[in-house]
Amino acid sequence: MIQDYLFPTSVEEALKILVKDPEKSKVIGGGTSFYIDGKELAKDISYFIDLGQIKELGEIYEEDGFIVMGANTTLTQCSKNPLIKENYPALVKASANLGSTQIRNMATVVGNIVNGKPFSDLATVLMALDAVFTIEDQDGSRETKVKDMYHKLGISALKATELVTKIKIPKRVQGEGSAFQRLEIREGLSFPVINVAAKLVVDKNIIKDAVVTASPLAPGPKVIEAIGEFLIGKEATDDNFVEAGLLATKSIKFHTSPLNCGAIAGVTCKFENCHYCLNPVPSTAQYRHEVLPVLVKRCLSLALEEIND
Amino acid sequence: MNDYKSIGKRVMRRDAREKVLGEAKFTCDVYLPGMLHAKVLRSTLPHARIKSIDTTKAEALPGVRAVLTYKNTIDTLYNQAAALMEIAEGQTLVMDQKIFDNVVRFVGDEVAAVAADTVEIAEAAIKLIDVEYEPLPFYIDPLDAEKQDTVNIHADKLHLQSAHNVPGDPSHIKKGDIEKGFAESDEIVEVKFKIAPVKQMQMETHSAVASLEDDRITVYCSTQNVQVVRGQLAHIFKIPMSRITVKNPPYVGGGFGIRIGLSGKAEVIAIALALAAKKPVKYIYSRKEDLIASETRHGGYVSVRLGAKKDGTLTALEMKSILNKGAYTSHGGAIHGTLGVMNTSLYRIPNIDYYGYSVYTNTTPAGAMRGYGNPQGNMTVNRAVDMMAKRLGIDPLEMRRKNATGKGDEYMLPYPCTSSTLAGCMELGAKEIHWDKRAEYNLEKGRVRRGMGMGIGTHFSGGHPFVLDYENAFITVQADGSVSVATAASDIGTGCNTSLAQIAAEALNVPLKKVYLTYADTSSTPYGYGSHSSRSVFMHGNAIVEAAKNVKAQILEYAASLAGIESSDLEIVDGIIRTIDSSRRFPKNIYARRIFLDQEFTPLGDEEFYSSITFTELAHYAHSQEKQFMGLGSINNTNAPPWYCSFADVSVDMDTGRITLNNFVGVHDVGTVINPDCVEGQINGGNLQGIGYALGEALTYDERTGIQYVNEIQQYMQPTIMGTPDMGAYYVEEKEPNGPFGAKGLGETPCISPVAAIVNAVCNALDIDDDDIKVPLTPQVVLDMIKKNS
Lengths: 309, 790
What we know:
The structure holds two protein chains of two kinds. Chain A is α+β, with helices and mostly antiparallel strands. Chain A has helices at residues 11-20, 32-36, 38-41, 75-80, 82-87, 89-97, 101-106, 109-114, 121-128, 225-231, 238-251, 275-278, 285-305, and strands spanning 4-6, 25-28, 47-50, 60-63, 66-70, 132-137, 140-145, 150-152, 155-156, 163-170, 176-183, 194-203, 206-215, 222-223. Chain A has 13 helices and 14 strands. Chain A is globular. Chain B is an alpha+beta fold. The chains are: A alpha+beta, B alpha+beta. The A-B interface holds A 36, 100, 183, 185-191, 193, 258, 260-267, 276, 280-284, 287, 290-291, 294-295 and B 42-44, 107-108, 126-127, 288, 292, 655-658, 695-696, 698, 700, 702, 704-705, 707-709, 711-712, 714-715, 717-723, 778-780, 783.
């Protein structure tokens, strides 16, 4: 039963409210993923805590070699911010294409990760960019990376008394480029068949660093370690990128979806690790594996094109 | 093309303002005093017998006013499609549904319903109903269900089945000698399509509000034809039609065939609960209920074998369809019948053999959807024609110029081809899509390939003579000279309450602003079949033209009697009755009007006689003499074929199978255009629906559980504006002799041939002759095609 919809004006106040009844409180960033199932979910919620009025969460700035993004940053703000545009082409691409204009104007970058969905475009990119999340509760703050943001399928590792307050991403270094590729059945308003993000650092055409991530994989995206191992020290050539793509498909395991789900006719999904909930876009694991090398190759080539001089 | 005053004009739609402002009233906006809310318990198994059902806990919940199951609900057998009121004597009428049954036949089938004070209480009560099922074997694919060793899904109605699990009659269409046709051919091509079922995705889900007043049942609902529903309800509840009122409130948020007849079980459940609780009841389907438990388009298998001579002359067409009926018949035989008859009529072919039927399975029932079986055959036949063109080295456009059926040709349709501008449509479409660039695009052999394709088609403008189809209209000239037109159309979003008013205004020759339509209400309109089968303008329009003739004759006769001349000496121009020779004949005393002073006056001077009189003046004078002008129009025994073509320009990503639609053009022969905005709206909307059908829309079922995967709107891949090119909506006009002012059907046609055009474009881009096509062409399907053919 909903008791109140609250607008704290500071992180401190928000945490104070949150700790009162954490299990029955729902933190709202943009609210766009909550509203999909809102009517159903709202039955168990007493307090909505909307972060929208907290000014300190609304800024994007540079600090100690990082670009810092407050938790209220919307996808639209992210894709249009000069600092983000200067540093992370992959993040611009991902945040400019998710959902629809209306969703991007409301949804926050942080929300796309803490909703725990395995097919998050932003998590895939932020993992490749080695982003760090600052998480606060009344006892203090801690920092964590994307891989530790997921507890299990569909559930984030964020505790009920905690808030993500900002995301810090290492500033782009000399010779760095990044890119994001999303395969979808239709343009706009669809979950991805697969997502791939890449960060590449090249010096005199020799690859100094290469991180490639992919999703949807449970519970969150994964770094395809084999690609980094293979590419670092090699020349940034099409042939090597093709080879990297082929390595990719050997190192991760996609699932066929839909596979099983009882979430219908008023029944909640009863399957552990339900591949349907994992990714509602119908596609076989085989197809995902077939196109993964293509997307990895394209992503690396695009990242190379995006490298700053 | 004409000097019409109302016809062909871009007049603003009469629903535009209300809809834009959010003021338009739909069924969900209907609130009656003391109204209860309904919720439905649905089956979680695809096929099962109910062993026991216990509703005591639900009944005990405070606020619950009625709980219904098969045990305490009227058990009349019926068919929720319009079939019940449409099937002519001698044809098989399959009635295989009850409001509730002790057997459930798909996941989502209705098991019980609750009426309660609030939606929340009703929802809580549903969860308190205990059902014990005895599971039965179930089938997802019609090819499985038709095997003899399977369980019969309607074992108690075998007399309604022409073969095992095949309800009603198969469709068999024959012409000439098919074997001789193939023997005479130089080339034969074959192709088989596996087509996924898709959804109408109308914006408003099925809805009904039922109430009992003065010994009458009144139901507001989302049906496409109120009069048909009245007949169905009379049959189901065994109450005289004259004691039932059915109306739209008046708006309906889309139809696309999903409620030709009852809006699923919205009306019957709302009425059954209202009768039990003795209070008004509202039942609105959730989107999830709409997706899993309201009718779909038929999926299934269609195959074609086509023979031709070297010069491109077609000699033989053999076609077969096996469609997935789902759990109940609804629109059964008419669907595979339409599939066959339309697509054996597109091209001039002397030897034809078509055989088609639909098979019961345990999936969501398949019913009517925009195109009514036509698209499934259209994509297959048009694909075969392109394959043949390629085999013979003939351009597909040239192949169609040579073979397409034209005006006056004999074809398989049971009404003559009285008009066709298809040839002109094809030329315009080819120009707009830049067909001349097709060969140039085909030269690109990189990782992105580009191609173009086209498809042509025909359809109907109503149900005659496939089913009963007649129409009526009343026109009353009110005492102020304004015109009331009453006909049982439903405006399901097409704008027919504007275009039918335009027809009435033109037929009477009065200004459009003087004409108002009463529609979608059984208590104030004559019997008719409503808005489906591309018939609203054609059939309701024709009935209105007849009624207008009737009332016009009365008006002229009365005016002539006042003027002491013959009615043939008079004419009506812009709402003014005048003598053709301008002679002054109307005596001054008939202009002595005291009310409706804002209406039109004839400027009077000192003269004793005048040459004209306004509608208002004449109607008001008649009123003062205790007379009203009332016209009746009836129409039957008519139909006309609309024609159309679609063109698609696509690029295919050879590595992912992803298709990009570069350009899309639909060109339509609609006869005379009544309202260009409405026509273009229909074409654009239909194109989009066809594009979705081709590229991503599909319902799929878990073979182990029978559960339909798509149960949220976000999982259903309708096209978005992001992936849609700027489409062209075009038409080439020619008067259809049987249509009102030359108009014919359009409602369905725009979504019929897009799939053909897109499949042909993709095969052209890939330069392949795949004989086994799966629709929709998702990236995965296309990548498989690429691999299979490389």
